[in-house]
Amino acid sequence: MATNQTYYVPEQSKWPIIATVGLGLTLYGVASIMVNGSQGESTAGSWALFWIGALIMAYMLFGWFGNVIRESRAGLYSPQMDRSFRWGMSWFIFSEVMFFAAFFGALFYARVFAVPWLGGEGDRGSSNMLWEGFQATWPLLNNPDPQAYPAPKDIIGPWGLPLINTVLLVTSSFTVTVAHHALKADNRKKLKIWLAATIVLALAFLVLQGEEYVHAYQELDLTLQSGIYGSTFFMLTGFHGAHVMLGTLMLIIMLVRIQKGHFSAEKHFGFEAASWYWHFVDVVWLGLFVFVYVL
Amino acid sequence: MFSQLFSVFLTYVYTQNCYIREQAFTLRWPVRANTASSEGLDAKSDKNKTLWRHSMMRVHAKRAGVLLSGLMLPALSHADWGMNMVPGVTGTSNEIFSLHMTILWICVAIGVVVFGVMFWSIIAHRKSDDREPAHFHENTAVEILWTIIPFVILVAMAIPATATLVDMYDTSESDIDIKVTGYQWKWKYDYINDDFGYFSNLATSQDEIYNRLEKNENYLLEVDNPLVIPVGKKVRLLLTANDVIHSWWVPEFGVKKDAIPGFINETWTRVDEPGIYRGQCTELCGTYHGFMPVVVKAVPQEEYDSWLAEQKAAAEKERELTQKDWTMDELMERGEKVYATACAACHQADGSGAPPAFPALKGSAIATGDMAGHLDIVVNGKPGTAMQAFGEQLNEADLAAVITYERNAWGNNTGDMVTPKEVFDYKNQQ
Amino acid sequence: MSAVADTHAQAHHHGPASGITRWLFTTNHKDIGTMYLVFSFTMFLLGGTMAMVIRAELFQPGLQIVQPEFFNQMTTMHGLIMVFGAVMPAFVGLANWMLPLMIGAPDMALPRMNNWSFWLLPCAFLILVSTLFMSGGAPNFGWTFYAPLSTTYGPPSTTFFIFAVHIMGISSIMGAINVIATILNLRAPGMTLMKMPLFVWTWLITAFLLIAVMPVLAGVVTMMLMDINFGTSFFDASGGGDPVLFQHVFWFFGHPEVYIMILPAFGAVSHIIPAFSRKRLFGYASMVYAVGAIALLSFIVWAHHMFTVGVPIAGQLFFMYATMLIAVPTGVKVFNWVATMFRGSLTFEAPMLFAVAFVILFTIGGFSGLMLAIAPADFQYHDTYFVVAHFHYVLVPGAIFGIFASAYFWLPKWTGHMYDETLAKTHFWLSFIGMNLAFFPMHFLGLAGMPRRIPDYALQFADFNMVSSIGAFMFGATQLLFLAIVIKCVRGGEKAAAKPWEGAEGLEWTVPSPAPYHTFATPPEVK
Ligand code: HEA
Ligand code: HEA
Ligand code: CUA
Ligand SMILES: [Cu+2]
């Protein structure tokens, strides 16, 4: 509820419209790369669109966030404003949770319903008539139509790289919390060390994840095209990986800002937002580890 | 001036419409209200009791229709306009119909009460009549009451609905199994116990659709080969699709079930009265979704048996056709027919197609070029386009005939011909 | 001390900037609200024009005006444009204008993001509409874009359609986040949650629904994108996927979506009926709980759109019961509205006319919804015009009438002028007649067996289709009158008082009409 405090209503801003043009061009570019590419037409123009859009987006991100940081440092934001940002970030993370929920839902549906049905079990088990010889197993190492979707040779076991990755991410969630406490205690040195450690762990995770993908593609024939197992595997881990990348980028920016002397022990919402995001990425991973790798 | 023109226009169209309607008077879904009339009633069987109940429902339905039309469109009310669900000819459809009428009347009753109070307020409490507003704005007792009453009504509706649903889902102990496969834009019926099957295509001519010919009474609801089933037998339908999702619906059976590619859905029906029943595909399945009717012919058992024997013999003959030696003329003659039913919808009767969506075959590179390429596209289709793999849909003789036809018709005078045997070999070497 | 710190406040005298940059760069909730409303009406005309094409083709049996392929594109684009372009942005526009005024806030909580939310919409619809001109044509698989028709068999433009949906989704999510942050954080001192106006309450809950389901829509179109372009097999049985998976995910979004399109209208009507009954809203608390219950239930009913796809019977029964339950809280709302009118002191200006019609006709739509919820009966109704009748009854006299009622109710506040009451009443009566003529016969058509999404039909459907088309043309043409009324009202007319409606209540009526560019620089005190 509002109190009788100053509320900052920003002046006109050019950033949103620039962001719109940037995003529009980027996505239009991506779409036409895909469409023209699949029809064997030239994609040069599409790539140009994409790059122009991407550059505009980059320019916008620097400009817009720069703007916000400047305002924040000028002390224009009241605690109430701060609360608005907090609500904003929390609900944004909730929306991300729902995005992942769609893919987890797809995974559960495939495992619990679709694949067993195709293999002849349950209510729609007569579907197996169409796929003679198909056996329902999970992980799915043979597809109903192996011609269309060649099955993977094997899948990635949980107790190798994925376990290491789990340890890395859980540790990083821990280190970022230590960094946060350091910030609250105004211990800048400790803060930098622990935040840097978090970033190193994050990068290590990304490297290992990359290695896992290379292994999957080159040795196991586990690909996006290898049926529903590959589809759900790569969509879940892939989108998670993309979020880790984004989170890492946020953390790096936080480190840069801390180097520049931003944030105080009391006011550091930017840092908190990044760490919330990081925890969210971590929690999603735990879900992945359990449902994609272990079970 | 303008309004006059408009009314002349309307009158014109309306009369035209009446004309069309008159043609359709003998309508599909013929009124069978007297099936349960006196001659059946003295019989003691339960079946006749249900029939009697159903005929009462029909009376209700008629009354409802008349009432509704009387309320809504007094000037236009017309008995033959078909404004309510049909009770149908199966146990399921009758149960659904009675559910439908029950809920309808409950809703009407609730509506009368709610809108009654509302209109009373509107009429009796106007400011213009110097009404002072009352001051109440809460009453817990009333609010609890109008939460509970609807809930109870809902429970009352849910009970018969559950019973009907359970019944509809019981596909066990069937007498006949038929596999129904949806294709863009036709149905295939496979009698899996008897090892034969056939396609069922729309039989309405393009001329009728494009208003060049008068529309016949079964416009868009007629097919070349209807599904044939015996009366009084539990028929289990195994529904699937070849390309996209379709949905198989015959209103008079109360059966509607989606046909999903890669999966099989089961449903069943038992039809008690011989007759021809018509329905349509009800899931958007692409361009010609509106042109994919379902026609079922329910016949007495003896008639069914002889039909079955005929079909089996014919299927055997078809298989023999592949072995036979064909002449060019025979192939061309057969090819023209196959082309008209299977290909002309897209490529047009004169081979001109409808570019860019559907390429012309007249003078096309493939149809006048290398034979292997032509065989490939017709047998395997082109994934991702409307051009399907006809290898699964047509037999060897038809494939050979249509390919030969395409290579020689409309000035594509390549002089080539391909025999059913060659097609057979081509399919099997793959 | 001014409580609003605007870096340029002094220089601008709190007024709008001049020229086009006012609209491009604005952070003002009123400007943004106006843009949303104008955009929405433009889309309504565009989507409506497509409906006119549909109705013209269906005027008579046979193919006359368009080819089946184009007809499918029209149906698809009509549905998409009306849902995502007309109704949702209209409500966001109303939210932008009214929420800060109703809760005594200086603006929305995140004004720059607010601007971005808006401008993404024209961008998304530019892409969507441009697909009409692409080779292979626009999306033609229905607004529900079921796989595999939309994946393996979709036109090349599907990829563009997917990205357009992504952009709309981003816009909606940011808009919703803004609404929640505003409501939770910027209420005037003293305005506790249970004192919030109902429009605010319904929007709070709507925003929650949006944030919960728009990402799921994004998820399902992303899976489509992958199936189309990267060889995954989410919706392809040959790789172990299932086309029905698409429908589950889509309707997990889709059903809450339909409540997103009606809850804000519930809120607005809950202001208008008391105002013109000169009597407090009956059962405020139960109204709030009912909206909450509807929202919660909306997450567990999705498969009622899928009764014929072969859901196992246990699921079928669960979804049937859950769906039927929604009638209870919705009924509470209807009864409360009627009880509010009961023994009031009623007048019938245009907002009230639309609101009363809303209650009656929405309820009729609700009744047909309830009939559809009875699973065995739905086997006969599904994918026929009965469904089309149902959802047009809840959407046209539901959502759209709700929007008209709101527009007339608040136009004096927005423009400072009274609209032309006679013209507005004409607009109402023509709309009312046209709309019923267009959509009531669709019930009969559906029951008699006419499937939806077909360009041509069997002869026994001819008469009602013709009636329906005539009604649709009448309803459509009438909307041009609305345009004229609004333009006239913006340009002049009788000056509106701060509170033009005798019975109206709320903070928005405490500021002058038109509402100044910046309002509630100092939060008002609510007792
Ligand atoms: C604003 C949008 C909106 C709203 C509010 C609703 C409200 C409801 N809808 Fe509707 N619906 C749609 C938009 C909407 N719908 C759309 C767009 C589709 C089609 C999508 C597509 O396929 O393209 C659809 C389709 C649809 C179907 C699928 C039909 C099919 O495809 O076969 C079903 C099935 O259950 C259904 C049910 C309901 C129910 C039970 C309600 C309930 O919320 C209604 C509750 C209200 C009342 C019941 C009236 C008031 C209550 C009383 C007066 C109390 C007493 C009453 C009783 C006890 C009966 N809807
Ligand atoms: C909020 C949503 C909304 C709204 C407001 C409408 C409004 C209308 N709808 Fe729509 N409709 C849907 C949502 C909506 N619809 C959806 C979701 C579908 C399903 C799509 C699918 O199956 O995938 C659908 C499908 C649908 C169909 C079924 C198509 C089919 O199955 O093939 C029909 C058929 O009559 C129809 C008609 C109309 C009409 C006549 C209006 C009228 O109310 C429109 C009136 C408005 C105008 C006409 C614009 C204003 C006037 C002008 C621009 C001037 C020009 C006027 C003239 C030339 C007369 N709609
Ligand atoms: Cu097949 Cu519609
Ligand atoms: Cu629904």
Automatic annotation (TrEMBL), chain A:
Its main location: membrane. This is cytochrome-c oxidase. Residues 3-295 form the Heme-copper oxidase subunit III family profile domain. Belongs to the cytochrome c oxidase subunit 3 family. It is a multi-pass membrane protein. Gene3D superfamilies: 1.10.287.70, Cytochrome c oxidase, subunit III, four-helix bundle. GO terms for biological process: aerobic electron transport chain. It comes from Marinobacter profundi. Keywords: Membrane, Translocase, Transmembrane, Transmembrane helix. SUPFAM superfamilies: Cytochrome c oxidase subunit III-like. PROSITE patterns: COX3 (PS50253). Its EC number is 7.1.1.9. The chain crosses the membrane at residues 15-35, 47-69, 90-110, 159-179, 191-208, 228-256, 276-294. GO terms for molecular function: cytochrome-c oxidase activity. It is found in: Cell membrane; Membrane. One of its GO terms (cellular component) is plasma membrane. It comes from the Bacteria.
UniProtKB/TrEMBL annotation, chain C:
Its main location: membrane. GO terms for biological process: electron transport coupled proton transport; oxidative phosphorylation; respiratory electron transport chain. SUPFAM superfamilies: Cytochrome c oxidase subunit I-like. Residues 23-527 form the Cytochrome oxidase subunit I profile domain. It is a multi-pass membrane protein. Pathway: Energy metabolism; oxidative phosphorylation. GO terms for cellular component: plasma membrane; respiratory chain complex IV. Its EC number is 7.1.1.9. GO terms for molecular function: cytochrome-c oxidase activity; heme binding; metal ion binding. The chain crosses the membrane at residues 36-56, 76-97, 118-138, 158-186, 198-225, 245-269, 281-303, 309-332, 353-375, 387-411, 423-446, 466-487. It holds the Pfam family COX1. The keyword DNA-binding does not apply. Keywords: Cell membrane, Copper, Electron transport, Heme, Iron, Membrane, Metal-binding, Respiratory chain, Translocase, Transmembrane, Transmembrane helix, Transport. It is found in: Cell membrane; Membrane. InterPro entries: Cyt_c_oxase-like_su1_dom, Cyt_c_oxase-like_su1_sf, Cyt_C_Oxase_1, Cyt_c_Oxase_su1_BS, Cyt_c_oxase_su1_dom, Cyt_c_oxidase_su1_bac. Cytochrome c oxidase is the component of the respiratory chain that catalyzes the reduction of oxygen to water. Subunits 1-3 form the functional core of the enzyme complex. CO I is the catalytic subunit of the enzyme. Electrons originating in cytochrome c are transferred via the copper A center of subunit 2 and heme A of subunit 1 to the bimetallic center formed by heme A3 and copper B. Belongs to the heme-copper respiratory oxidase family. This is Cytochrome c oxidase subunit 1.
